[in-house]
Amino acid sequence: MPYPSDAENWFCKCPDLYSGKLCQFNACERSPCGHGATCVPKTDQDTVCLCPYGRTGLLCNEAVNVTRPRFSGIDEFGSTSFLAYFTIHNMSFYFEFQLKFTLANNRSAVKDNLIIFTGQKGQGLNGDDFLALGLRKGRIVYKFNLGSGVATILSEPLNLARDIHIIHFGRSLKTGWLKYIKPNSTSEAVTIANIFLKVDDQRNKTGSSPGQLVGLNVFSQFYVGGYNEYTPELLPAGSHFSNGFQGCIFDLQVQTIRNGRFRTPGKPEGHPNAGRSVGQCEDTPCSLVQCKNGGTCIARGSTVYCKCPLEWKGALCTETVSVCDAEHAPPPRCAQGSTCVPTPYGYTCQCLLGTTGMYCEQYFFSVSLTHGFVQLRYNLGDKTVILQASDRVDASGKTWHLVHAGRKGNEGYLALDGKTVTQNLTVGMTALDATTDFYVGGVSSLNAISSNAVEDEPVSFTGCIREVIINERELQLTESGAHSGANVGDWDGTACGYKVCKNHGSCNLNRFKQFTCTCPPLWTGSTCAVSVFCADHLCQHHSLCIPNIPTASYSCACSLGWEGKYCEKYVSFLTARFAGNSYIKYTDPYYETRNLKFTKVSVNFTSNASEALILWMGTAEDEDNDYLAVGLHNGKLKVAFNLGERISVPLTYNKTLLCCNKWHSVTVIQNRTVIKVYLDDEMVLYEDLDPFEQYVALNYGGICYFGGFELHRDITSLTSALFTQGLIGKVKDVILFQDSKNIQFLQSSEGYNVYSGDNQVP
C-alpha cells in the first residue's frame, strides 16, 4: 500500500515478511542478525544476514576495517552490494572524478555492471537528472542526463590482462569527458572543450550532450558499487545496469571546482553513511566459517553463508532435509495452501477444499454431458462452479444443439439452444490459470482430469461436434488444424460438410456423391456465396462488389489506385483519403535492415470523427503480435505498444482535441522500452513501458496498416477494443525510421476504398 513520503511523495508500507522500496524482497519472520544487518530467508527455516558496512560473519557480529572496498554485485536474493555517501554538493555545472578498480575473476564482472550512480527519476516530461558510470560488454560506459537527453561516452574494450585500471572523467556544463589511464601513465587530462573518450594510447573520441540544459540537479545519495535497491521502475531511463560492480574500487576522489583540490566523498571524508555486503579487498571471510557435511562457503563482500548439499540445511549444514522441506531437491510440488505429508515412498499432498489433483494445483474449465444434461464446470483456484442446462439434449443423434458457455471474471453462463442459466459469485478468484492444451471430445489421458471437472467417472464424448469458437476464434476441427488427436472421423462421410453451402443454403448429394447447393432467394453461386445483386456486377480491376439489399443494387469497393463508380479510373496521389471502411496495407521493403530496437514513425493526418485507427505497425495476425498503434479515442490522441508478451497500458494525451478536419502531425519514437510522442512538434507523452527491458524490439513483420484493416476484419476485435472504427480523414507525409523520403502509398501496398486527397481542402 503506498503512503506519502517527504522525500519522494510516497512510500510503500509493506505487509509482514516483505521489505524493499516496492515490497519486492522477502523478509525474515524473526531475525538473528546483529548490528542492523538485513535478514533474508534462505529457506523456510534458514536465514542469511547481509552485513552492513564495517561488519562481517554469519551474524555480522565481527568488525572489519575497509580501506579498499570489495563489491560482489547482486546476490542470489536480489540484494546489491553497495556504498552510499551523502549528496556531493556543487556538482551542477562542473565535476571531475578519478578512481581505481580491479575486477573479479569472472565473466559477469564486465557484462553490465554499475560503478557509480547518483540521480533520480523525473516526473512526466520534466526529465531525469543522473550521473552513471559502469561496465558493459567489457567497455567503460559513462552516462549523464541534465534533463534534456542522455549523453553517452563509450570506451574501447578494456585490457583485462591488467590488474589495476584507472578512470578519470568529468563534465563542464553540457559537455563531459572520460579518460581511462594505464597504470603508471603520466599523461594529463586534456581540456574539457568537448565530450571525449581516451583509453590507453587510443585517439580521443568526441561528442556533445543533447538538449540545451547545462545543470545537473541531483538530490540522491552518491552510490558506489551498486544501487541501494535495483528497482528499474524507480530509476531514470537510460541509467539501468543489470548488476552491481564485482571487484574492488579504491582511491575514489572528486573535485567540483576546476583546478581545485580532489577530495574523498563522505562526511567526514572517506566515511560512507551506509553500505551493505562490502568487504575488504583481498580478505577471505570464509576463513572464519567451517561449513559441515560438504557445504560450500559463499562470500559476497562482507556477507558470508553456507550453501548446503541436497540432504542438509542449517547455518553450517548440520541438519538433515526432509522430502517436504523447500530445500529438498527436487522441492515438493504441493500447491500453496496445501500440506505436504512425508510417506515411506516420498510424500503426498493434502489439498484444501475446492482444489484437487496430485499436487492440489488443478484449475479447469469443462463442458460435459451428465445424464443427458449439459454442464459447465470451472475452478479458478478457490472452488468449483457448476451450471446445468434446464433441458435434456436429444440423445438419438438426429438434432444439432447449440451451446454457449463462458465466464467473465467469476461470473459464469451456460446456454443450450437459447435458454441461459448464469451464476454470479460476489467474491472469489477471477482468473483461470490453465496452461494445458485445449481438448475437444476427450483427453489424451482420462486420469489427468480433475474429479471435480465431471460429475461421474470421466468418459470420452460419443457424437458429433462442429464449429467450436473460443474467444471469437474458430478452431479448425481438421487433421491440419489440430496438433494431435485420436479416433476422430468425419461426421457423415459425405461431401456435404458443415458450412459447405453458405448463407443458409441446403446441401444435396447427387448420384456421384458430389454436392450441390440449393440457395435462398438473395444468394447464388455454387456455394451460395454470391449476392444476386452482384452476379453480373461491372466492378473492374479486382474491386469488390458490395450488395445493397434495401435498394436491390450494389456498389464497388475499389482496389488501391482506382476510383469511379465501377473503379474504371486510375488515380495516383500523395495524400490518401479514407472513408471509414478503407485501408492501406503497406509492406516495408527495408524491414530486414531495420533496427527494431529503435523505431521512429511520423505521419500527418486529419479526421472528422472522434474515433479512428490511423496507423497500425504490425501483422495483426494474432493478439500476441508486436505492434505500434496510433489513433483517436473521444477525439484525443491514443498510442499503444506491444513489444512482447506484456501488453502495455495505452498512452492517451487528453489536453488537445483533434477534430474538425485540421491537419496535425504525430511522431512516435520507440528506443528499446522508452516511448516519446510528439504532437505538432511538441513532446506530449513520455513513458518507459518496461524498465526491466524484458522485450526491447518492435517485431512488426514489415507490415503497416493505415486507416483500418481488410474489409472482412473487425477493428474492435483485432485491436482488443483499443480502437473501434477506421479513419474518416486523410493521411500524408509518412516517414518510417530514419528514411529520407516519404513512403509512396501506391508502391508496395494493397488496399480498398482509398481516394485521392491531394486537391481537397481539409
UniProtKB/TrEMBL annotation:
Domain called Laminin G: residue spans: 72-281, 313-496, 573-761
Annotated signal sequence range: none
GO biological process: developmental growth
GO cellular component: basement membrane; membrane
Keywords on record: Calcium, Disulfide bond, EGF-like domain, Glycoprotein, Repeat, Signal
Annotated EGF-like domain residues: 24-61, 282-318, 325-361, 492-529, 530-568
Name this protein carries in UniProt: Protein eyes shut-like
